[in-house]
Amino acid sequence: MANFTIDIVSLSPQVFKPIIENGVIKNAFKKGIVELNTYNPRDYANDQYRKVDDEPYGGGAGMVLKPEPYFQAFESIPLRAKKKVLLMSPQGSVLKQSDLIRWSNQEEQLILICGQYEGYDERIRTICDEEVSIGDFVLTGGEIPAMIVINGVIRLLPGTLGEPLSLLEESHSDLLLEHPQYTRPSEFRGMKVPEILRSGDHKAIKSWRKEKSIERTRNRRDDLYKSWLTENNGNKEN
User: Fold this and answer.
1) pTM metric for this prediction
2) Which has fewest Cβ within 10 Å: 9, 95, 120, 238?
């Protein structure tokens, strides 16, 4: 068994196949760091038409996902000791990097429930530990948000990235956006790499990067900057 398991309940399981076929995420599957399984609620429907939705009680537009096939799909999943069940929903808490870090560090299994149509029968929500949104908008289904969660979590798992230290300096790891990055050539179309980055003075470089990270966050994401200030008790030098 892989160190980490991701199980997806979705009416469109085929859309997840490309996830395990590209880049560092592909390598994580090849190395056995993570395994991914899909469960289609249609396979658990209790009628000959494999019906998974019905009209809402009380009337209204659209169709609502039925509880029976979702419960049965969920109950067919082998559960691990440390697990989190996530419902992909525009009503959920907006996904943050801290969530991805928490799940990758504290869990052995993520179960992602994806919906379509008008929404879930309210009883389906009782399966889940958390509801997750990727923003204040509505998509045709929960598969794209689930892919974002999958990508974000797997890249944090030990062994996925070649240089794990890079995770410590990237955007949102400490509420701040990442500092500017440069590589060769030292000058391109009149734009020069800051001299300090070529100085070899690692203490000065570290200080410059922190300063630029704070400056970029303040200019681009005032909400994150204020949260960072609060967490650091207003001390910009921390």
Assistant:
1) 0.88
2) 238
In our burial notation (b when 16+ CB lie closer than 10 A, e otherwise), range 124-154 reads: beebbeebbbbeeeeeebbbebbbebbbbbb
Q: What is the pLDDT of residues 105-157, one digit of tens each?
A: 999 999 999 998 879 999 999 999 999 999 999 999 999 999 999 999 999 99
Give 7-42 pLDDT, tens digit per residue. 999 999 999 999 889 989 999 999 999 999 999 999
Eight-state DSSP code of residue 35: E
Q: What is residue 220's three-state secondary structure?
A: helix
Q: Please provide residue 120's backbone torsions phi and psi, each rounded to the nearest 5 degrees.
A: -95, 145
Does residue 121 contact residue 54 with C-beta atoms inside 8 Å?
no
Nearest CA among 2, 237, 10, 231 for reference residue 120:
10
Half-sphere exposure of 98 (CA within 13 A, CB side): 6
**Do the beta carbons of residue 12 and residue 145 sit within 8 Å?**
no
Domains and CATH numbers, the chain: 4-154 (3.40.1280.10), 169-231 (1.10.1270.20)
